[in-house]
Amino acid sequence: RKEVEQDPGPFNVPEGATVAFNCTYSNSASQSFFWYRQDCRKEPKLLMSVYSSGNEDGRFTAQLNRASQYISLLIRDSKLSDSATYLCVVTDNNDMRFGAGTRLTVKP
Amino acid sequence: DAGVIQSPRHEVTEMGQEVTLRCKPISGHDYLFWYRQTMMRGLELLIYFNNNVPIDDSGMPEDRFSAKMPNASFSTLKIQPSEPRDSAVYFCASTETGIGYGYTFGSGTRLTVV
Q1: A8 confidence band (pLDDT: 50, 70, 90)
Q2: CA of B10: which chain A residue's CA is closest?
Q3: Residues of A in contact with B103 (CB under 8 A)
Q4: Within 13 Å of residue B43, how many CA atoms lie on the same side as its CB?
Q5: Contact A87 B103 (CB under 8 A)
Q6: Contacts of B56 in chain A (CB under 8 A)
Q7: What is the pLDDT of residues A25-75, one digit of tens each?
Q8: What is the CA radius of gyration of chain A?
Q9: Which of A44, A91, A94, B33 could lock B93 by a disulfide, CB 3.0 to 4.6 Å apart?
C-alpha cells in the first residue's frame, strides 16, 4: 500500500461545480498535512495547510479525519483557473510525502 | 524576494556525461530540499540539508548522485555518470522552519538524458 494515496482523476467538471478530492495516508503517526497545487510544467505551490478542526480559505475547504486517516479538499464554485493537479502532502518527524496528485479540469 | 532560484531550466545531455543542477534558496531559509518528479513515481525526496549540513540522503538513488551545500545560499546536485532513467524534473525547495511546514519550490530543472 502506498503511504499517501490519491485518486489520479482526471476530474472534469463544469464551471461553478463543487468538487471534492480525498487522500488517504498509512502512517497513523503523521503530524502535518497540506494541499499543494501544481500547474502543468510548473512547480508545486502551497495551497493550504490542513488543521484538525478543518479550515477554509475562500472557496477551498480542507478537512482531516485522523480516525480514518484521510484528508479532503473541497472546491466550491469552481473556476477555469482552478484547473491543475492537486497534491496531498503528509509529514511526520523526518519525512514529507507527496501523493501522486489528482488532476482537475474545469470546463466552460 | 526572488524565491528559490534553480538553474538551468532545461538540460539535455548524453548518457555518461556529468550533470550539475544548481539551487539558490530563499535568504534566511535554513532547510533546503532536492526532489525529483517523474510521471511514474511522482515527487520523491532525494536529500535535504539543515544549516548547510546534509540530514537525510536516504532518497538518493545511488552513488552516481551527490549533493552539496557549501554555504547558505547555494546547493548543487550532481549526477555522474548520467543515465536515461535519470530523466525527470528536479526541484529544489526551501523553508525556514523545517519538515512539516510549507515549502517554497523553485521552478525546477527539466533533465533529459539521451
Answers
A1: confident
A2: A41
A3: 46, 96
A4: 29
A5: no
A6: 94-95
A7: 998 888 889 999 999 999 999 999 998 888 999 999 999 999 999 999 999
A8: 13
A9: B33
